[in-house]
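Re: your question from the hallway

Yes, I did run it. Sequences:
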Amino acid sequence: MRSDPKDYELVAPGSLQAAVGLLARSPGEWLPIAGGTDVMVQYAAGKLPSRKLVSIWNLAELRSIEVLANEIRLGAGCTYTNIREHGVIGREFPMLSSAARWTGGIANQNRGTLGGNIVNASPAADSLPALLAYDAELILISVRGERRLPYAGFHAGYKKTKLAPDELIRAVCLPRRFSGYVCHARKVGSRNAQAISKVCMAALGRVAGQTVEDVHIAVGSVAPVPLRLSETELMLRGKVINESLVSAAKKMAVAEIRPIDDIRSTAKYRAAVTGNLVAEFLNLLSADGKA
Amino acid sequence: MNHERIVGTAVPRKEGREKVTGKAVYVDDMVLPGMLYGATVRSQIPRGRIKKITFETSVAWSEFVIVSAKDIPGKNCIALIGDDQPCLASDSINHPEEPVLLLAHPDRHALRKAVDAVSIEYNPLPAIFTMEESERGSEIVWGTDNVFKTYLIQKGNVDDVWSRADYIIEGEYSTGAQEQLYIENNGMVAAYDAKQGITVWGSLQCPYYVHKALMALCDLPAEKVRVVQMETGGAFGGKEDYPSMIAGHAALLAMKSGKPVKIVYDRAEDMAATTKRHPSRTRHRTALSRDGKILGGEIEFTIDGGAYATLSSVVLSRGAIHAGGPYYWPSVRIRAKAVATNAPPHGAFRGFGGPQSIFAMERHMDRIAQVVGLSPVEIRRRNFLQPGQTTTTEQVVRELIDLGKLLDRAISVSEYQTKKQEFAIENGTGATKKGIGIAAFLHGAGFTGSGERYLSSVVGVEGCADGGVRILVSSTEFGQGTKTVLCQIAAEALGLRYEDVTIAQPDTTEVPNSGPTVASRTVMVVGKLVESAARGIHQTLKLSGMLGDSYSAEEFRAACQAYVAGHGQLRSWAQYDPPPDVFWDDEKYRGEAYAAYSWAVYIAEVSVDLTTYSVSVNDFVALQEVGRVLHPVLAIGQIVGGVAQGIGFALFEKVIWQQGRMQNNQMTNYIMPTSSDLPPIRVFFEELGNVHGAFGAKGIGELPMDGPAPAIVNAIEDALGVRFDSIPLMPEDIYDAITARSLRGEDEVASVIR
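Structure:
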């Protein structure tokens, strides 16, 4: 541990109201900590700038998973393990289940939370492309009340979000309207487990024959924020899948992303693999149309 | 012929229960009264001179013990082979992790801020980071020419063969640095008192290396330096030389403060500052006859030693001797060179130069096969060393090894031929390409050349007052099974039960110097001495009339008790005695390089995913002749673990360097394979036996590190038809190569001269 515990203060309010009350009294001063799978890594490395931590780990209000008629509402404090073990998520949102399974090891999955993954805002986060592909919405809470906004657009830039300094994510809402869609999620990491993604993709779509009716493609690790490939999606809708469409989609996908060279991979590799994953998905979609 | 009861069986590990119940005591478990915690202030630049050291006022410095080079009582060096590496830099900085100051404080959490509050100003000097820069010599960073050591091995007259050759085939191959990644980070506790001297307890492989280093550093006589090995959580060579550095640091802080001091590295410091496998570059130029027989060749083997000489000369020696592989070379010239760069010194890591030069040899064999138009199987078969032939150092192969038979068995159990045919068909379509590759190799056991003669190891076996037997060696357990196997050997030699034999904790006041625990020498060399010392106990009891030739365990116990009661002590010693027919010339690097070799053929099957350019190893066959297998479970464990590390070496583990400093010194970004990245590793043994080893054993620990990388890269070439001569081979490299080839539109033309 490269940090001195004496330099840090940790409080654990007993309720969600108390937690947002604390945030409201001195906005920006307290760093919320849930499972600690990101915060404690920074702490151990001596690189955690926030000296005041407010634990939201034990807040029951954040831990529920509500299955409503038209959406499923996941408390922001749900862990990856909670997600993995949930039957409805497994059936209707398999790409989120997969992402939960890919994230870290079992210990990380027992502690890491969906809300934490969103606010940590790493472009390499595994669950975020799935949330984008499923048109997730967020419910944010503060003493000022709740507000609901689409998850797409929540990330304002590298490690920046639209969360106000006095707000917490209350829940993540996933619309239950993707039955019958073909889903394809893939994580390309540096090894088969316990890896940070070099590229990850979550895509879903529906075809009538070979014509693309609807398509959502989201990618991670290839831009400052997790990204929906909206131009590529637009270009694909209503078109017949064939070799030239796949090739055009690959090109357009590569044009939409902003990959970089870093300690884990290279920009050109990330671009090529993104294109290949989009092609792989379209070929699966096409095969579904032929089935 | 095997009548043994204990040797050859899978007895429980001696220290296994303590480890799995959490009772084993590691150095970080130790707390001494009044103990301080120590930390190291390191240089931040690769090369330069220290101008000024400033202590920022944010820290209450009066609470800290501060040690600089001026506080060293003896010589400011880590005594090993040469004495060039300072314990603390006083003026010159030669790499970015060089220790400059030591701090100690009762609160371990206070240390990090203090380390950060020391600022060092430098006059920077130009630094060099590659072997090529070092060879160019535009900056001399070590000695007069940046060269730590060279060797020249010559057999026959290779200059004559080029004109007779039908083929001359060249290739250049390289391997990267590799971190050992033992589970337990390095750590030491030191305590000092003027009367008894210095004692250190630590995680280490070689107690007497640390002992020697502390004597020189602290200017103390042998009897005032005590080194104790604590339970050690893995080493792989990574705790061969650097523990002397940490022990020195803890000792200096303990001497200055008068209090015990503990230094335990965290993972980030351990990965950045301690040793790694030497990066290497090997060039081959080989002459062949039309029928694929090697006529001769030149091999140039170069390793990057980092900033100080440390163990580079011996790593170089082993790499050079193994560079010709298990093949017969009528003539050969091997030039080997270790050069300096401004990176932390590279050190020992399982295989010790062998995995580097063997990677080159075995990739080169596949290249030769292609050019000559033979299969990878046939080219090897035609060139295998046969009993009676000589190695590159002109050592006559006396072992009755039949490498062709080994190859046949590996081919058969891996279903090599069937898979070759299947893949040729399947690879036509689809985004996954499969391939299969072979590596054949050998690994010498024990110290090289006259090394064992110089070591002249001593082993003791003691009959105890309670009638039990205790082994006294400085050979250490760090997960590989030293304690278990040496106890098996003593129990077997004395006809006792395994439970009747224990082994002393390595403590230089208690145990003789049985040499370092390195070089696959413990079971073969030390084990043989344990066998002999154990028989000495029986001899003594027999001569005293207390025991006959055949006896029960109970009779032995009674005799032993009676003898100790009567004589006070029952001890038997054995010292290494070199075999009479062994000849080694240190000047010409010629002769019996090793008392025995282990031999192996490994076969890897891979698939390459062309969507992600990633490689999966799907199946792995590891077949080896290692003499008698003394403990089947531990032996299989050694092979499986070594193959896993070899897979990491080939495909995953890449040190990202920047200005001589490791950038990815975290396990999140330095990628070792997990269990889900490993194939079934199928282990097979041939057991020819060995007259030099205990109960016929040879070395086993390092061997499995040598073969996986070339077998895997050969398999990747088989799958893709693209050549890769450099490891680690990452998906990014495969993508680049495939793209480059499709841009060129045709395969590279082989560089065949005739």
